[in-house]
Q: What sequence folds into this?
């Protein structure tokens, strides 16, 4: 009898103070979670320190990159330098097998929530990340009114010092509970996740009472790693359909597409969709030019629900019979609001050889 | 007005080659284009199961492949096959599809000699001269053509024979083309073949027997001279000059290399012109149309 192969996925969160690892075993249907603090010495170069810790952890467990079907990293800082550092710090064997898929923590939380049972994401869900003297709040709720059920993730960052909340102060609990009560009044929530070293200790009695009033509250340090791990298991249909609008740092909120006419009706065909970071957002579409060498692109702002159009003329193409020019469109983002559209002349097979000419069309979006 | 058509399916790693014409297609859109421009090949038959497999395995259009497979039955209406193919994607609009199906109907209702000529023209332009000759010859056996039409078939048949280096046969058909169609182009080609084979004087003499005007003869001579000048600037002439120079310089080995390469290319190009196996006859001969 053939042995069934089961898959194992990993999510790794790299933060300045800790490395978190979540491993999901499909056979056991279990998530194994671990967190390793990064000491002060390693804080300056926490990425390298984190990778070293990861390497030794995997060695202890007797695991290697080949044991995982897919691996996703979430990072506290996702600027270009940090991402490059992570990519370069990974062993070649690792990147050869898994590449280097990086997401931000905002997305990691959203992936965590939407991979849970419907009751978790079909109600308002909130993450509170208390790190240093700041509180990051990520709220996931339903967009109303909306013809189709769609969801939104938003992030706020509160400076706790400005709110008069000081770590270790005698009134920390009182001040925090007062602040959070006001926050929850404006942002009703059914489920709350708490994470970050700020929630450690036994200081939050009033705060917990306030949080737990009519809500379910969970505390854990592996939310981001678990979210990354769940993303590795597969992409959610809701995400693919563009039903989840993530309005956070790095996140792309515009879809880029074209409008085509089918059966006499206009139809918007997206080339890229929303729900990912700009560095993870790319798309490709092949079109045939009909009647002109112009392609009109449409940028759908999903936050404001507005559409903006911009046309590009492809010049210097050889003369060909009608409808025998295939153009491969590729969209890449260079930031949340900027990117480039590349249009490559593919010709039409043996009938009209392609020139390989690439037309570059940069774009800047309005948020 | 639509300006862009969104493509469907994948680009094939292994193209499908149509045996009748040797043309390869790699995408759904290329397939639609090919079928639309080669409807004449499928008046009494349809592409075989290989095409449906190609659509499924290479283009990843499973639903279309299943439909085509179901409709690949000569007893079934071929128009349903084309309608299903074109309607699957966006390459042709609904109006265009209706126009194509109307055209198909017209082709199917055309006389057998017309179908034969169109097939001959198609194979000739696809580099299948031998097959073109067969269809032209079959067309000539049909009745109902006007003199101009018969002349046109003789002319095109002669062109196909020239591709096969059958100059004597070509001359005969060019003569018939002139007799039936009285098209000067047929007469010019007749003149040109004689000029190439037997010299300008002989060609002039031959043409005088047709009692053509001096002006026409002068026109032919000028045209022929221009053709020779054009040839001198062609790649083939440059190749011959190079071979001659190498031979003059005593570099026989280099000369032979160029000659052998040229011969191999000519043989390769000529192979498809010569091909006329039974399996490439994908339609019934036009006389069978009388039974439909």
A:
């Amino acid at each position: 009898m053939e042995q069934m192969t089961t898959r194992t996925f990993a999510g790794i969160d790299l933060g300045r103070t800790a490395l978190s690892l979540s491993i999901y075993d499909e056979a056991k249907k279990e998530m194994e979670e671990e967190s390793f603090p990064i000491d002060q010495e390693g804080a300056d170069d926490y990425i390298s320190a984190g990778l070293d810790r990861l390497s030794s952890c995997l060695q202890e467990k007797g695991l290697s990159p080949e044991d995982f079907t897919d691996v996703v990293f979430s990072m506290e800082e996702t600027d270009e330098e940090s991402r490059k550092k992570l990519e370069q710090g990974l062993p070649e064997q690792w990147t050869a097998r898994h590449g280097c898929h990086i997401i931000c923590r905002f997305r990691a939380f959203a992936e965590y929530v939407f991979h849970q049972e419907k009751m978790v994401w079909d109600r308002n869900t909130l993450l509170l990340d208390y790190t240093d003297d700041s509180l990051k709040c990520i709220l996931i709720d339903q967009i109303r009114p909306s013809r189709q059920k769609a969801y939104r993730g938003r992030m706020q960052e509160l400076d706790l010092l400005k709110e008069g909340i000081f770590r270790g102060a005698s009134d920390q609990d009182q001040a925090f509970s007062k602040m959070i009560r006001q926050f929850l009044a404006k942002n009703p929530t059914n489920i709350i996740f708490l994470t970050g070293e700020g929630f450690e200790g036994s200081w939050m009695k009033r705060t917990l009472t306030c949080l737990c009033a009519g809500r379910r509250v969970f505390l854990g340090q592996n939310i981001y790693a678990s979210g990354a791990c769940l993303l590795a298991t597969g992409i959610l249909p809701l995400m693919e359909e563009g039903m989840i609008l993530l309005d956070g740092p790095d996140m792309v909120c515009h879809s880029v597409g074209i409008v085509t006419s089918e059966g006499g009706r206009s139809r918007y065909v997206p080339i890229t969709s929303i729900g990912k970071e700009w560095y993870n957002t790319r798309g490709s579409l092949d079109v045939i030019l009909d009647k002109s060498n112009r392609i009109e692109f449409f940028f759908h702002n999903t936050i404001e629900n507005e559409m903006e159009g911009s046309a590009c003329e492809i010049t210097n193409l050889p003369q060909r019979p009608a409808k025998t020019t295939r153009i491969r469109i590729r969209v890449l983002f260079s930031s949340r609001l900027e990117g480039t559209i590349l249009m490559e002349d593919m010709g039409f097979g043996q009938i009209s050889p392609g020139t390989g000419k690439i037309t570059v069309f940069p774009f800047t979006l309005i948020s | 007005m639509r300006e862009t058509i969104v493509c469907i399916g994948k680009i094939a790693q292994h193209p499908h080659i149509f045996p009748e014409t040797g043309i390869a297609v790699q995408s759904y859109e290329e397939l639609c284009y090919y079928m639309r421009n080669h409807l004449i090949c499928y008046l009494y038959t349809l592409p075989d199961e290989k095409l449906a497999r190609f659509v499924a395995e290479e283009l990843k259009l499973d639903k279309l492949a299943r439909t085509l497979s179901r409709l690949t039955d000569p007893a079934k209406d071929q128009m349903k096959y084309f309608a299903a193919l074109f309607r699957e994607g966006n390459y042709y609009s609904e109006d265009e599809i209706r126009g194509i199906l109307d055209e198909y109907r017209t082709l199917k209702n055309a006389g057998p000699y017309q179908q034969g000529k169109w097939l001959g023209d198609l194979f000739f332009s696809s580099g299948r001269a031998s097959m073109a000759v067969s269809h032209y010859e079959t067309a000539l056996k049909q009745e109902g053509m006007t003199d101009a039409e018969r002349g046109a078939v003789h002319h095109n048949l002669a062109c196909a024979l020239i591709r096969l280096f059958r100059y004597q046969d070509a001359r005969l058909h060019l003569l018939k083309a002139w007799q039936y169609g009285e098209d000067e182009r047929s007469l010019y080609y007749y003149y040109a073949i004689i000029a190439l084979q037997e010299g300008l004087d002989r060609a002039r003499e031959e043409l005088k027997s047709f009692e053509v005007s001096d002006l026409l003869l002068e026109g032919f001579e000028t045209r022929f001279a221009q053709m020779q000048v054009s040839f001198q600037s062609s790649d083939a002439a440059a190749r011959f000059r190079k071979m001659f120079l190498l031979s003059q310089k005593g570099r026989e080995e280099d000369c032979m290399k160029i000659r052998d390469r040229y011969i191999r290319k000519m043989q390769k190009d000529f192979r498809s012109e010569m091909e006329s196996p039974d399996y490439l006859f994908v339609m019934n001969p036009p006389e069978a149309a009388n039974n439909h």
About this structure: The CA atoms of residues 329 and 343 of chain A lie 5 Å apart.
